[in-house]
Amino acid sequence: MDPAHLQEALDGRWAHVRRDARENLHDPDMLPVYGESMAEARERVTRAARTLAQSGRVGFGFPKEFGGEADAGGSVTSIEMLAFTDLSLMVKAGVQWGLFGGAVQLLGTRRHHETYLRDIMSFDLPGCFAMTETGHGSDVQQLRTTCTYDPATQTFDLHTPHEAARKDYIGNAAEDGRMAVVFAQLITQGTNHGVHAWLVPIRDEDGNPMPGVTIGDDGPKAGLLGVDNGRLTFDHVTVPRDMLLDRYGQVASDGTYTSSIENETRRFFTMLGTLVRGRVSVGGSAASATKLALDIAVRYGNARRQFAAPGEEREIVINDYLVHQRKLLPALARTYALNFAQAELVSTMHDVQTAVHEHGQEIDEQAQRELESRAAGLKVAQTWHATQTIQMCREACGGAGYLQENRLPHLKADTDVFTTFEGDNTVLLQLVAKGLLTGYRDTFGSLDGWGRIGFVADMVRETVLERTAARALIARLVDAVPGLEDVPMLERGWQLKMLEFREKHALEGAIRRLRKNSTTVSSPTHPMAPFDMFNDVQDHVLKTAQTHIDRIVLEAFVDGVDRTTDPAARTLLDAVCDLYALSTIEADKAWFLEHGQLTPARAKTLTATVNSLLKQLRPHMTTLVDAFAIPADWKAAAILEEEPGRQEAMAARDAELRRQHGAGTPEGTATDLDVPPGQ
Amino acid sequence: MDPAHLQEALDGRWAHVRRDARENLHDPDMLPVYGESMAEARERVTRAARTLAQSGRVGFGFPKEFGGEADAGGSVTSIEMLAFTDLSLMVKAGVQWGLFGGAVQLLGTRRHHETYLRDIMSFDLPGCFAMTETGHGSDVQQLRTTCTYDPATQTFDLHTPHEAARKDYIGNAAEDGRMAVVFAQLITQGTNHGVHAWLVPIRDEDGNPMPGVTIGDDGPKAGLLGVDNGRLTFDHVTVPRDMLLDRYGQVASDGTYTSSIENETRRFFTMLGTLVRGRVSVGGSAASATKLALDIAVRYGNARRQFAAPGEEREIVINDYLVHQRKLLPALARTYALNFAQAELVSTMHDVQTAVHEHGQEIDEQAQRELESRAAGLKVAQTWHATQTIQMCREACGGAGYLQENRLPHLKADTDVFTTFEGDNTVLLQLVAKGLLTGYRDTFGSLDGWGRIGFVADMVRETVLERTAARALIARLVDAVPGLEDVPMLERGWQLKMLEFREKHALEGAIRRLRKNSTTVSSPTHPMAPFDMFNDVQDHVLKTAQTHIDRIVLEAFVDGVDRTTDPAARTLLDAVCDLYALSTIEADKAWFLEHGQLTPARAKTLTATVNSLLKQLRPHMTTLVDAFAIPADWKAAAILEEEPGRQEAMAARDAELRRQHGAGTPEGTATDLDVPPGQ
């Protein structure tokens, strides 16, 4: 089957950006060099970033006025394509143009744009995004760095009060960064107005730290060796007033603070909401790395043979083993599902941000919160999928998968931190859960440490699951299914209904338990500490978030299949969608059995159906990875570079030798079930 | 609670070896150096291996006559302790003294011992174990390297017929090895007698490859950078007749082949069975790495704080979060369970090998097969547990876990290949399954590629699960439980019975399906290819193996608790055992629900019981890792080296600043459920 139509379905709305990247991003510096030192990796990646800047392909997200494309979706897509090359380069680019440049663009005002954006885009001004501190990663509202205004000098005093307040894990800091967007508590006229951002020089033109600025190096990491992560400490550093990125909060020369958004928490989350693009990019980048790993593992599994069937001479290709298929194919199906979910997210993000930033429309708060929640959920799904799938691919490629030259070690080590940065996955699941529990009506970031649990009870009336893509299509499919029993498992409506039921039930259960705990909290006889009230149901709450993510991903896949016009591609995608849905349900069989949505007999049928889908999809494994259309020179996996015909030549030699002197261990007693030790 | 008694329970029969290691292995070269190059790592590890040899602590497994201890259990234990230091050193030592030295010792005869053992033990003769080929890892009976005898010269011709026959991934080959134990097909008088081993010089005294020997380098790997893995190719290399390691097969000067074991497959597996110690060592080493990772993660989780409860100023220690406990504690419980299972395995292996090698007893074939099966199962369990747990620990330590200086990156990268070498885990599970299916009666390594499936039907009569440790105790506990319903889940007998039931049921189901397929194979109307006959049930067969492993691990834990005399330690171990048993059952709730061994109501109770066990064990987390008794200087994790009191000092400073200018975001609206992007 021609993978071109499949590829078209996967490439989506910004296919032209993907095509351009495939055709034009071929700087050898963009690929990992196996065995290089950390210093060499950093140099190479900095060089590659500079080359990338010169290619003009880094301006997607910036305003046209400064040479950009004002194309948020294109910006994310270009990062996703970069993620097929050295992930250190993808992160370096993301820091420079996504986080640093993005913060100047979206939190700064005109004077900042005019002064700095062009140099940021050209990489003449390398910079950092200095938010995280050693002591505070997830709870950013509790940052300890302070920035205190002095009207006498009309400057701020930026200060790191102790070591845990040190900015840490900051990309572009240890070597290259000349300026940093620094997040700190804004204090003026004796009042703390919460976290804001300033543009602060950290190195002079000679590369030396500015006065009062101490720059440290995080040293070698598990991966991403080409990214110079470092630490920044500020010792009463003077920052001019106009270096406050003042789009959402301003300080007058006399120190008076003003903001168009009165509520501090709302202001803080509004500021940060503009930076959602980074989280969307991380999810999409994880997906690219996953696709590359699967590409390598599927091709390896087509070539690698071990153990012969009785009576056969030629050994069996490992992709023919059921258990090997069970490793690769459901992961491939989930990758396809996430591709469509990500495409939908990027599209939504693009439309929302374009409306606000390009057309000056008012922010639709609820749409913004849903977008952030969706971005969080898909960041979680794609990064955990990446780390687990790449691990599985390494093991599926045996010893060869352990050699750096076959790419998988870098993919694993580099993506490992993706489950932590841009939001720790566990904490992000809570963000998603909060959105579900409050129906996104809470725009203040509340459920404030669980104290105001009554707020939850008020906020949630009837649980109506918001359908996402192709609402009409989904509704039609689901309504066509009368119940959940006796419906064939390959009925799309049944699959959707199962995931909807699970999400609704989990959500209702979480709400019920939280309400119960909230009344218990104030019980005179059995008071429950507020912490315990929430902690007690934390696993249930996170489970709810995960069921939600599974459902919206399936809906996106269903929509993606529906939009596919080529009949052969559509048929294949249909089967892959079946595999995604059924393997997702199978993975949580316990829940469905426990809640009566599967009988024991149906549970057995489910496993058998998954196995028969594996058989059905086995012949299409190569087509499914071909459709990722990863250019051969991006793969940097020696195992894929074998000359054609070599395996056959060696097999012929083996047969000849066997004819000469016999097979050794007599035929019929070779077994796949014994593995000698020591190898 | 004083961890000393707990430690005693964990240290087991070779506690003296562990104590000696803790007290005396403090060569700084033994620890990873973060940021070193591959060349530096190799040099340091070779140096450390030499120092280790000089300490005299490498001879545990060798005969007393040559300076060894003839202590197989001590040998494995010493490797387990080494695995707390640089895992490259553990692998280097395992290759030199376990595989290379072990092969010379157990496959060679007196003249080989007298000529080489002392130099091997002193490291004056570094050597390799050259079994694996590029084309054949798991199916070692299909090695392609040949070794053909020529009576005219009384020498063998060792030859690599094509590139896939190249010895690959051979530790100690790329730099240091002077000789190799090479496995190849023995051909004499026109007949191939199967795989045998020869001792072959590969480098001369100046370090140059011997004539006809080509040595390649596998290059940088994902981890284990201190191990010089390489490739060996032989171009008609002349090997003197007396270099055949001829304990189990001999070639006379005229080329006549003789062996005390007539059947070739039996001979091959007997040879390799002697090397089971390597597989046992890998499992135990994985366990050590796991313990170190958990030690770091638990201590980190006791210090790291994020998000405050409502009304509180001090943030919450992350080990107090339910979901964080759910990550760490079940893994800790499983680590304890595996500790006792490994201890039992090592003890059995020691007794079996001592009886055979020291006291000259006949090999009890069934005991040997059970030992090999047990070694395979625990290798699988401990290595997958290591890789998954270390991954979880890295994520649980956030960004700090990603810095090499905090040890976790090395632990993850180094242990990653443990699921592949010494037997690919998936293939090993099949070995375990085969033992179950045939009741270990098959001593010939058959179920030969599934052809002789009738053999299975003959071999398996009634499925009686062999109980392992403390048979009387286990029987008593299980018999005390009348059924499976309505029995309290904290009843040990119920837990054991559940796992026994699952194993028995899975095994019976696998046999039933294999028999059914075997009749289908020869059906004239619906013939099933022999490959499909087995492939069709491969997932069920592997599942059966996993249920068996879970059961025998629980039995070992139960026995271990029973042997613990100190009351406080025993009580704590009891609770940990409960957590192991119940979290194991919970992880496979689907199976138990599907087969009626849990009702939906009981399934809910199960989760609630696990959660309450987490609460109960939370205060003991530090004690549980203290009991691993890992010396502080072995940990090499910067995050553990903080000065006491520093966190308190910084918290006091924070409180002071808060008093001065307010908390920033008003109290009561800080939430743990929002995570800003970009960090």
TrEMBL record, chains A, B:
Region described as Disordered:
644-679
Keyword Transport on entry: no
- Where does the Acyl-CoA oxidase C-alpha1 domain lie? 273-437
InterPro entries for this protein: ACOX_C_alpha1, Acyl-CoA_Oxase/DH_mid-dom, Acyl-CoA_Oxase/DH_mid-dom_sf, Acyl-CoA_oxidase, Acyl-CoA_oxidase_C, AcylCo_DH-like_C, AcylCoA_DH/ox_N_sf, AcylCoA_DH/oxidase_NM_dom_sf
- EC assignment: the record states 1.3.3.6
Q: What is its main location?
A: other
Q: Has UniProt tagged this entry with the keyword Oxidoreductase?
A: yes
What is any Pfam family matched here?
Answer: ACOX
Q: Where is the signal peptide?
A: none
Name what cofactor the protein needs: FAD
- Tell me the keywords, alphabetical order: FAD, Fatty acid metabolism, Flavoprotein, Lipid metabolism, Oxidoreductase, Peroxisome
**GO MF terms held by the record:** acyl-CoA oxidase activity; FAD binding; fatty acid binding
- Renumbered to this chain, the Basic and acidic residues biased-composition regions fall at 644-659
Gene3D superfamilies for the chain: Acyl-CoA dehydrogenase/oxidase, N-terminal domain (1.10.540.10), Butyryl-CoA Dehydrogenase, subunit A, domain 2 (2.40.110.10), Butyryl-CoA Dehydrogenase, subunit A, domain 3 (1.20.140.10)
Q: Which residues form the Acyl-CoA oxidase/dehydrogenase middle domain?
A: 128-237
Q: Where in the cell is it found?
A: Peroxisome
Domain called Acyl-CoA oxidase C-terminal: residue spans:
525-631
What does the entry give for GO biological process?
fatty acid beta-oxidation using acyl-CoA oxidase; lipid homeostasis
Recorded family membership: Belongs to the acyl-CoA oxidase family.
User: What is the protein's name according to its record?
Assistant: acyl-CoA oxidase
Record organism: Blastococcus saxobsidens (strain DD2)
